[in-house]
Every structure is written in structure tokens, then in C-alpha cells.
Amino acid sequence: MVPAPRRVLIVGAGAREHALAWKLATEGVEAFAAPGNAGTGQVGTNLDAAATDIPRLVELAREHAVDLTVVGPEAPLVAGITDAFTAAGLPIFGPSRAAARIEGSKLFCKQILRRGDVPTGLFEAFTGPARAREWIEAREDMPVVVKADGLAAGKGVFVCADRGAALAAIDALAADPVLSRGGILIEERFDGIEVSVMAITDGRTIVTLPPVQDHKAAFDGDTGPNTGGMGAYAPTPFVDAALLADIEARILVPTVHALRRGKVPFQGVLFAGLMLTPQGPKVLEFNARFGDPECQTLLCLLESGLGPLLAATAARRLEEVETPVWKRAAAVTVVIASEGYPAAVQRGLPIRGLEAAAALPSVQVFHGATRSDGGRIVADGGRAIAVTATGDTLARAKLQAYTAVREIRWQGAWCRKDIAEKGLLEEHRRAAAADGEGA
Ligand code: GLY
Questions:
Q1: Closest CA to 368 of 19, 25, 78
Q2: Residue 210 · residue 324 · CB < 8 Å
Q3: In 265-362, where do the E strands start and end?
Q4: Which of 240, 287, 354, 428 has a C-alpha 20 to 30 A away from that of 95?
Q5: Sequence-separated (6 or more) residues with CB below 8 Å from residue 429
Q6: How far apart, in whole angstroms, are the C-alpha atoms of residue 199 and residue 214?
């Protein structure tokens, strides 16, 4: 057995990283976070390094004698943090630069999916906007998705209802100094229910995590601009045990194999963004890390140890670890954001009510963009706080999450009011259908 880690460095500064540090701390692990936030500072020690300052992170891992590093966000993975740590002989959880391209390049992702015969949308790839425009103009008017090829922090995907919207999206990509650097993909657009299914893998063995539903649109009813995620809940009734087994067999396992066959074995979290269509689940995208806020939701349901799972994955000995044990419960995470998010926000506003919220039963308050400022905790960016509550039903978890959210206040703070609502409606629909069958 791979020994459980005792000292872990967590790279990143969001609520996902606070949740990782919190869960590890409950297991007796000494957690360090770089750069961390006010929340990681409460459960561990914050270290002064940007998440992409790889040479400094290598130094800090050595200096603090950590026995494992866990990478939260995608940018350091795509920049090669795993390669640098591995070269330095330091264990690290997360894919190599080459394997992280499954998130860093939409075209690479599609090539892997094609190699694994994994269900996904048809697509065309273009090196620049002129050819993409020509292609759209030559086709019949149809809904499509226009995507920038590289990392875009959620800003590079345009869901287009018609030709006019697609042409406007291509123009927007061409006009953006960052998004215009790479190619453009135009994909078939699907309608359906979107879910997140993540698996921990060492490149051979996979451990599929419970299905989660994120809420990416800013406002209630899935309206408004796209965000990093305004809330999540698990397990979602849209994915029952049979569908989860199908997703594992037809999507996750073939993707892991296709990566290995392509000589880019993947270790870390493989995160499938899926659309549930009448023809079955289709891959919208893959990410190379835990989702945020999906991670907070899942870690509040994980009863068994996280440290052994992460350490065994990094050692490529995941087959030695017991299957994780999940609480027979539901969890709901609600993100509280600063005024203006996902556009620019005012920083430095003091947050009140964090202790009162955290004191409620079955509630965890995770810090995202926060920092300590002379004894006060202040909001330091858009998604500042994520509140997760568990309950024996989804309805109870939701009620408790919003009870806690009401305690937390700062000027201009807001949240979606309908997190988990789709799941509750689906539960009612299924119960009514089962009653109908029984009658
Ligand atoms: N919540 C979606 C993501 O982490 O990409």
C-alpha cells in the first residue's frame, strides 16, 4: 500500500483548494496552499507563490518536505507543473503537460475522443477566422457551438442559435487578443441536460465519482452569461446507476485507454462535461482537474480518506486503494459572488456572518476569492464563497445550504436562488412516473 500522505501542498487559490485542504486536514494531514486564500490559511499554511510559478513551487515543496502536491487549477497543469515535479523526484497528483492538453486544446480532446470512439459532437477545425466564416456561410443555417482551441477561462465557448450568432462568435474570438491566438472549432450543438462526471485515474485503474450537476449560467433559470459555476449538487437523479456504468464504460474508460495508446497516459482527475441527449450521453468537453464547485460538493460526501486516494494515484498504484465510501446523503453547494461577477468586481469588501454560517449543522463554508485583511476577511474576487450543506435528501441539503447562505453578507453579494431545483423537479417527475406505473 502507498502510505497516506502527511504533508500536502495544494496549488491554487479557490474554494476547490480550500475544500481539498479542509478534507485532508480532517484526516490529520498538514496542508500547505500556494497561494491559498483566507480559508486555506485557517486549515493549513499559505505559502507565497503564484499557482503558475512552477520553479518556486518546486522549491517550496522541498523546503516544506511535502510528500504529495495536488494541483487544483488547469493553468499550472497545462504549463507543465507535473513534468517539473516529476523531474525533481517530487510526487504530484495531476496530469503531465501533454495529457493536460485534453483540457488545454479542444482539438486534441476531439482527436482523443475520435481515437477512443467516444460519443461526442461532429466538428470542424479551422486555423483562423476567415475559413471558419466561409464554412458557416456555405452551410445551411443551424445551431452550432463555436470554441476557441486553447484555455480560455470559460470565455472561449459560444453556444449559437443560428448563422448570425455563429458569425458574431467568430468575430468575437478574432477580436480577442488571447482567444485569437489558437484555432477555432465549430461543433454540432446538442440540447439536453448537462452533467459533470469525474473519475480519478492513474492511467490504468479508474475510480468514477458520483455524478454532479453544475450551474454554469450566472442567473436563475440558466440565464445570463457563462461563469465558472454558480453552484452544484450531487448525486444528480439525471444519472442513475445504470447510466453511470454506461458513462464509465463508453466514455471514461475508452478515453483513459485512448490517452495511453496515444503515449500520453493520464493521472489525476479526468472530468467529463456531458450532455444527456435522447441518443445517449455525449462529451461536450474534458477537463484535467477537479471541477469547482463540483469538488466542494463531492468532498462533503466522501466518507473515506482522500489522501490515500490521491497518493496512490500519483504513485500509479490506484488499484491498491479500497473503493471510496460515499455518505448516503445529498450535498448542495451555493456560490456567493461579488457584485458584477463574471465581469470586473470591487475587491476588499468585508464579509460578515462566516462563523454563524459555519456553525450550522451539516454545513461547510469554503473560501474562494477571499483574503485576510487586518483581522477581517474580505472578498478578493468574483466567486468569493461556496457554501456546501449535506442532508439525507436533496431537498433538506438545499434548504440547509440556503439557510447558511442567508447568514453571509457583504456589499453587493449575490447568489443563484435555484441551485438543485432541476434535480428536485426530476426527483418529483420520477416519483410521479413510478406512482403511475404502480397504479
Ligand atoms: N464547474 C466547471 C469547471 O470547474 O470547469
A1: 19
A2: no
A3: 268-277, 280-287, 330-337, 349-350
A4: 240
A5: none
A6: 16
CA of 320 to the centre of ligand 1 (A): 29
**200: which DSSP letter?**
E
Q: Let me know if 141 is exposed, middle or buried by CB neighbors in 10 A (0-12, 13-18, 19+).
A: exposed
Q: Say if ligand 1 is within 6 A of residue 14 CB.
A: no
- Cα-Cα-Cα-Cα dihedral sign, residues 248, 238, 423, 194: positive
Whether 369 and 18 have beta carbons less than 8 Å apart is answered as no
Which cell is 257 given?
Answer: 485507454
Query: Grid coordinates representing 68?
Result: 504529495
- At 180, the pLDDT band (50, 70, 90 cuts) reads confident
Q: Using alpha carbons, list the distances in angstroms from residue 87 to 38, 91, 110, 120.
A: 31, 10, 29, 35
Please give the number of the atom of ligand 1 that sits closest to the Cα of 232.
Answer: 1
Domains parsed from the chain with CATH numbers: 7-95 (3.40.50.20), 122-188 (3.30.1490.20), 328-439 (3.90.600.10)
R_g of the chain computed on alpha carbons:
21
Q: How far apart are CA 301 and CA 416, in angstroms?
A: 22
Could you give the C-alpha distances from 353 to 44, 191, 357, 403, in angstroms and in order? 21, 40, 6, 12
The distance from CA 159 to its chain's CA centroid, rounded to whole angstroms, is 20
What pLDDT score was predicted for residue 154? 66
Q: Which three cell numbers stand for residue 55?
A: 520553479
Over residues 90-132, the pLDDT tens digits come to 999 999 999 999 999 999 999 999 999 999 999 988 888 888 8
pLDDT in tens, 407-433: 999 999 999 999 999 999 999 999 999
261: helix, coil or strand? helix
* Residue 22 φ/ψ, nearest 5 degrees: -60, -50
- Name the residue among 86, 319, 101, 298 with its Cα closest to residue 201: 319
Is the C-beta atom of 292 inside 6 A of ligand 1? yes
CA 13 to chain centre: 14
- Helix H or strand E encompassing 188: strand 184-188
Strand 268-277 versus strand 193-201 pairing type: antiparallel
CB 231 within 8 A of CB 420: yes
Whose Cα sits closest to atom 5 in ligand 1?
291
CA distance 14 to 52: 14
